């Protein structure tokens, strides 16, 4: 009798558990947000370009609000983009709870809320310009664009300038949101910007002044803060340049570029030259 050979039973293909898919997605996002490969750098460059485009929309929002439905469509599109970016950053972070503790994360969450509920939180829209400050003070930005200038005068000047510009437009937005209903004082966003600049620089032409005690208090705050930020910017521009090189003995962080000994403890230093690391 002839026996028919039966094909051996094939083992079932292994299924990838959902948890493994999640780990793979987090590893991919971590590679894109924190990696050093050309692909990761190009990805972060694209994210930064989109960030600046979003900041430009925030800057022009008071002028574009009259566009009606078009403004809200763009607003919700930006909300989706920002939500995707924040989700990617959270998954790429090693500890999501640690990521949630960062002040920049709470700033971005509030900005996202103003985008998702523009009709209710429109008067707080001026706080969206804080995105400029968080971007230019983030490791994400300096690891991508500013890695050549890290811990140098260019980085310090950029951070100081970002603080000044951010305060200028946040204060302008606050003045506009608070006093634009009073048509005898602030007729439009340009008037609010003009008042903020003249107060911040302590020029004080007097053609536009805010009414009441709270208007005077706000003017004083703008003047004092503006002077402080201008002084900080001037210090970063004119003070002697230093590099970040921690002393192995006393821990002093910054030294002169040509320093041979630590000024605090006298330890011999070996600071790499910028052209010859």
From TrEMBL:
Pfam families: Ion_trans_2. Keywords: Ion channel, Ion transport, Membrane, Potassium, Potassium channel, Potassium transport, Transmembrane, Transmembrane helix, Transport. Its main location: membrane. It is found in: Membrane. Residues 166-238 form the Potassium channel domain. One of its GO terms (molecular function) is potassium channel activity. SUPFAM superfamilies: Voltage-gated potassium channels. The chain crosses the membrane at residues 43-64, 70-92, 104-122, 157-177, 189-208, 214-234. It is a multi-pass membrane protein. One of its GO terms (cellular component) is membrane. InterPro entries: K_chnl_dom, K_chnl_Slo-like, Volt_channel_dom_sf. This is Voltage-gated potassium channel. The lineage of its organism: Bacteria, Pseudomonadati, Pseudomonadota, Alphaproteobacteria, Caulobacterales.
